[in-house]
Amino acid sequence: MNVLSVASEVFPLIKTGGLADVAGALPLALAGNGIRMRTLLPGYPAVMQQLARPRKVATLTSVFGDEMRILSATHAGLDLLILDAPTYFDRTGGPYVDVTGRDYIDNWKRFAALCHAGAEIARGLLPDWTPQVVHAHDWQAAMTPVYMRYTGLERVPNVITVHNLAFQGQFGPEIFPQLGLPPDAFSVEGLEYYGDVGFLKGGLRTAWEVTTVSPTYAQEITTPQYGMGLEGLINARASELVGIVNGIDTSVWDPSTDPHIAANYGPSSLRLRAKNRRALAERFSLINDDGPLFCVVSRLTWQKGIDLIAELADWIVAEGGRLAVLGSGDQGLEGALLAAASRHRGRVGIVIGYDEPLSHLMQAGADAILIPSRFEPCGLTQLYGLRYGCVPIVGRTGGLADTVIDANEAALAARVATGFQFAPVDVEGLRQALRRAFTAFREPKVWARLQNQGMKCDVSWERSAERYAKLYSSLLARV
């Protein structure tokens, strides 16, 4: 089966979040199910610089009149189609924001061009390959099924995956005439969203099937609390909504072979983690003692509950814990954590920014990872934590609730617990979860069982890839 994936970022070429990890790992996992997935992504400078011998396979004109090229290339086992359109993507900032951190004012045009290219590939643009199914990811690719619906490709199966409903791609109505769509596309049945143009809303309305990245999140987004204004539409499509939990690339995230950590180890050699623990403490200028070392690897935002961690930093230190933080985001939260590090030198350390190798060392060296998200479609850091014996402490929401087994009395007695869940997701909820973690940490055998059980969990893509393969087959059966 030939499947076209359309995504705005793909690891290891370009990454701002978990979307890239999924877009990079899923094609490799699907290959074992007889599926050839080719991924269309923009030709950002960071992408173009890493490609070896890209080959032009097609040219097309965007709906805005600009000539674009489709390049074919392979990288890290991925079969890639690159949209080479310098007008839209040859920029010095990030994929979505300029060097000052502001959204590009023409993001709507940039990603409409990507989606139009995806629809043209579905139409047969490439001379030797046509997809049977099209898979779009998030708002940046959500216009792909819209273009397919309104340009005569409504019989080509397609699916859209929502990685985070909070990001919707909503723009003013003045852009609609430039999108190259018929007038009836600007309606409640299409792109119109409270008078604006909604890219994600249009994709949710027109795609054959909608998936989210965990079963619990699929349920949550049908409610006003998590539906972000789209819960009415999502409920109307409930029969075509499915949650499939993400996996991780277990060849990249493997403590027994990871080149980014100080000492490799496995479930039967957990004692070797001590070297990583010392290396992590040294990297963050933390003292070495017997108290638990907590880590945070995250965007520093309200959604991720980072304000709760900042508020409890003094308490964590007073209880004998240490804290290492890697991330960037809200300046106020960055400042609060930097202030905590200043107050507690040797007990709290922070690195502003993102460092992929360092994130591996943090999972390998910290005792527990804090993920107090207020909502979390799936989350990947808790899966990395499970894989590395870094016990997750998570808010009971979305994919966090689906992937971490709470260390309550029954789960501990049955020896199936893998971490700590808490609700409500507020300061006191997190404090109570941390109290339970401190108590368990003081019993080395209990803590080791939590680590071992987590490391035994199947966090690979194997089962989820099978579910996607079955989904694609079910769509083809409807043609």
TrEMBL record:
GO CC term, one of those recorded: cytosol
EC number: 2.4.1.21
Domain of life: Bacteria
InterPro entries, sorted: Glyco_trans_1 (IPR001296), GS/SS (IPR011835), Starch_synth_cat_dom (IPR013534)
Gene Ontology MF term list: alpha-1,4-glucan glucosyltransferase (ADP-glucose donor) activity; alpha-1,4-glucan glucosyltransferase (UDP-glucose donor) activity
Annotated keywords: Glycogen biosynthesis, Glycosyltransferase, Transferase
Pfam family membership, one: Glyco_transf_5
Catalytic activity: [(1->4)-alpha-D-glucosyl](n) + ADP-alpha-D-glucose = [(1->4)-alpha-D-glucosyl](n+1) + ADP + H(+)
A single BP term in Gene Ontology: glycogen biosynthetic process
UniProt-annotated binding residues for ADP-alpha-D-glucose: K15
Glycosyl transferase family domain mapped to chain residues: 284-438
Pathway assigned in UniProt: Glycan biosynthesis; glycogen biosynthesis
Cross-referenced Gene3D superfamilies: Glycogen Phosphorylase B
Residues covered by the Starch synthase catalytic domain: 2-235
Enzyme class: transferase
Listed PANTHER family: ALPHA AMYLASE DOMAIN-CONTAINING PROTEIN, GRANULE-BOUND STARCH SYNTHASE 1, CHLOROPLASTIC/AMYLOPLASTIC
Matching NCBIfam families: glgA, PRK00654.1-2
Function of the protein: Synthesizes alpha-1,4-glucan chains using ADP-glucose.
The family this protein is said to belong to: Belongs to the glycosyltransferase 1 family. Bacterial/plant glycogen synthase subfamily.
Name of the protein: Glycogen synthase
Organism: Rhizobium subbaraonis
Gene giving rise to this polypeptide: glgA
